[in-house]
Amino acid sequence: MVLFEHLLTKIEKTPDKTYLQFEDERISYFQLYKRIGQVATGLYEIGVRHGDKVCLMMENCPEYIDTWFALSYLRAVTVPVNIHLKGQGLKYILNHSDCHVIVLDDAYLPAVISALTEIKREIKLVVRTTSTLSPTAKGLVNDRMIYFHDFKNSLSNEWIPPVQTTSHINSILYTSGTTGLPKGVMLSEQAFLQSAKTFAEHMCQITANDILFTTLPLFHVNAQTTTVLGSIYSNATIALSPRFSASGFWDDVRFHDATIFNSLGSMIPILCKQPEKSDEREHRVRLTACAATPKEFWGIFERRFGVKIIEGYGLTETSGFCISNPIATSRPPSFGKPFPNVKAKVVDETMQEVLDLTIGEIVIKPPHSSILMDGYYKMPDQTLKTIKDGWFYTGDRGYRDLDGYFYFSNRMNECIRRRGENISSWEIEQAVNNHPKVLESAAVGVPSELGEEDVKIYIVLMQGTTVSPVEILDWCQEHMAYFMVPRYVEFIDEFPKTSTERIQKFKLIAKGIGESWDRENSNYKVNKTRQI
To answer: Which of 177, 312, 333, 357 has the fewest Cβ atoms within 10 angstroms?
Structure first.
C-alpha cells in the first residue's frame, strides 16, 4: 500500500480527531485531507509531475507535512534540505538532486538565490512566508517565485487524478558528508511505512490515546518515521515544536500534554544539566525513543524526570530505527535487539561473522529490503560498497552479547591509532561530555612525532562557564584509560557540522595541532598505573 492510500485509511477512521498540534493550532485528520488536496493541486498547476524532485527547505510547520504528503500523492520525490545549509553545501544538494522546484521559508531565500546563480537549470521557488526582497534579488527570482498561501487558498476542492503506480521512491535524504560528499539516500514509500509500523508496534507500543512530541527537524528521517508516520499509523496525535529549547522543553511537553517524545543522545545530558525545577516531573510522558544515549546519564535522566529511555539504533539508510531495547527488558548501555523483521550480525574485515563479545562491523539485513534504502542517488559505486548480498554495511563498530543485545563501539573511520592502541573517539567524547561544564566535544587523531597519532580533544563549553585544560585532563584521568587521555586540548565556540548536525571531523583534523594546549609541554603527568 502506498503512503497516500495508507493516510486515507487513517483519515477515514478518525476524521474529526486532532492529528497535529503546532503552537496554538489544532488540525484534524479530515483537515489534513483537504490541505493535502490543495497543495497537490497547486504543485501540479506549476508543473510538478510523477518522478519530479522537489526540495523542501522549511522550519518545522504544518505546511511541511502537507507538502510531503501532497508530493506523495503526485508520486513526486521529496528532497528534504537542512535549513542551516548555505554556500557550496547547499548548491551541491540543489544541483545533484535534479530538483525543479524548491518549497522554502523566506528566511532561506538569500542562501538559495546565491546557490542558484551557479545552477543553470530552471528552478521554481514556492515561498511559504511573505518576503521582502531587495531589487537585485527580485530581478533574479521574481519570474519564477510563487507564494505558498496564494496557490493554496485559491484552489477548488477538485482533486487531480492520481498517478497509478505501485513502486515509488518517496524521498531522497542527503546523509552527512563527514568524509566526503553527501550521499542521497533513496527511500521508498514501503520503507517509510514499514519503519513507522515497527516503531509504533514494537519499539514504543503507541496507542490512539498517545500524543507524540518532537523538537527534531522534519528534514531528518527520525522525526518523519517516528513522530509523524508512527503517530499517524496509530491514529494518535502529533505535537510539533519549531525547535529544541533546553530551558523550555518541559514547558512545551506540558503544553501539548505529550506522552512520548523522540530524542537524540546529546539532548539527554543537556536536559540533565539544566537547573532543577519543582515541576519537572509534572507531565504525562512515559518514554522517550532515543539513540546514542550517554550511559552515565541514562539512569540520572530516568530518575530525575520519571521518563523511561527506549534506546534504539538506526540510520537514514534503514529508514530510521531497526534495532531497539525491549521496553520491559532494557539493558543499558546496549541499543537492544533487532526488530522482528530485521537480521543483524557483527563481521570482521573479511565479511565473516565473528563470535559474540567480539568487536567488528555491524551489518543489517531486512527481509525483502522492506526498510532498506533503494541505493544512493546517482552513486551506484557507493551503493555497491555498502550493500553486499542484501546486507547493509553500516560503518559502525560494535559487538553482540551472549543474549543477543548489540552495543556500539565507534565509527570505523573515527578510530585513533596511538602507540599500538586502537582508541575509540566516541568513548573519549562520551567521557568528556559528561563533564558538567562541557556542552559537546570531538576527539580526533593528529600526527605524532613518534609515529601514528596523538589524541586531540576539541571542546565547546556550556554558556557562561570556564574551565582549564588541566581540569579537563584531571577529569579524563578519572573516567578513561591512561592511553586515551588527550595530549592536546583546544576550546572552540562551535563545531563545523554537516546538514544532519554531525561534526565534520575532517575539518578539525585539517587544523592539526594548531595553537592547542599541549600537556607534554606543560609537564602534566598521566598516571599509567591507575586502574579504572
So the answer is: 357
The edge-to-edge listing of strands for the beta sheet with 453-461 is: 438-447, 453-461, 488-491, 517-518
**pLDDT-based confidence at residue 131 (cuts at 50, 70, 90):** low
The strand order across the sheet containing 320-324 reads: 25-28, 18-22, 237-240, 211-214, 260-262, 287-291, 308-315, 320-324, 337-338
At 435, which helix (H) or strand (E)? none
- Residues 308 and 327 sit within 8 Å (Cβ to Cβ): yes
Residues 293-329 pLDDT 10s: 888 899 999 999 999 999 999 999 999 999 999 999 9
Q: Report which of residues 222 and 164 the model is more confident about.
A: 222
Find out whether 517 and 490 touch, Cβ atoms under 8 Å: yes
Q: Are 172 and 499 in contact (CB under 8 A)?
A: no
Residue 132 contacts by C-beta under 8 Å, 6 or more apart in sequence? none
Instruction: Give the DSSP H/E element, type plus range, for residue 96.
Output: helix 87-96
The full 3-state SS of 445-474, as one line of letters, equals: EEECCCCCEEEEEEEEECCCCCCCHHHHHH
pLDDT band at 414 (very low <50, low <70, confident <90, very high): confident
CA–CA distances in Å: residue 445 to residues 264, 415, 509: 25, 8, 7
pLDDT at residue 528 is higher than 70: no
Say how far apart CA 122 and CA 124 lie, in whole Å: 7
Which alpha helices (DSSP H) does 177-266 contain, by range? 189-198, 221-222, 229-233, 249-256
35: which strand partners?
none
Q: Which amino acid is at 219?
A: F
Helix axes 425-433, 469-479, angle to 10 degrees: 110
**Locate cell 600526527: which residue?**
447
pLDDT digits (tens, 9 = 90+) for 463-522: 999 999 999 999 998 888 788 899 999 999 999 987 567 788 888 998 999 989 999 888
